[in-house]
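Audit log entry. Action: structure prediction of a protein-small molecule complex. Ligand: zinc ion. The ligand was supplied as SMILES and no pocket hint was given, so placement is left entirely to the predictor. Protonation state taken as written. Sequence taken verbatim from the request; no trimming, no tag removal. Recorded inputs:
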Amino acid sequence: MSVGIGGMEIKTKYNENDLLYIIEKEKYETKCIYCNGTGKVKIKDKKFDCPNCNGKGKTEEELKWDVIDCKVPEKIYIEIEDGIVEVYYVFRWGDCPEYIKEEDCFSNRGEAFKECKRRNRNESRGTNKVDR
Ligand SMILES: [Zn+2]
């Protein structure tokens, strides 16, 4: 589809009534590997709160890309700043509209999952580099 704004014709990847798969960085809690999620560790037959997770059984959240929903956008929103065009698809969850960038929308479920995998792989590789 193309949208006309101030004499400019902006081409968008998807149409207003396309069903789109949305990907977002989501928070995850991971099971503590020291206490195996129980929150307790046994030392000489006595149980203690796990020092790694403070007895919670879970460790801090990890951020991962995931497909969060598939919806038809309410509208397409185009922002032009300093000549850079950003295309957003506006979705509604309950009362609040959310603006999702075009690069985070996919018309195909498989593609959406593939992109999540790619981003998660790239980002974990990036963290490793910082550590060393
Ligand atoms: Zn633990």
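Audit: result stored. The pocket of zinc ion is lined by residues 32, 34-35, 39, 50, 52-53, 57 (CB under 6 Å). The two ends are 46 Å apart (CA to CA).
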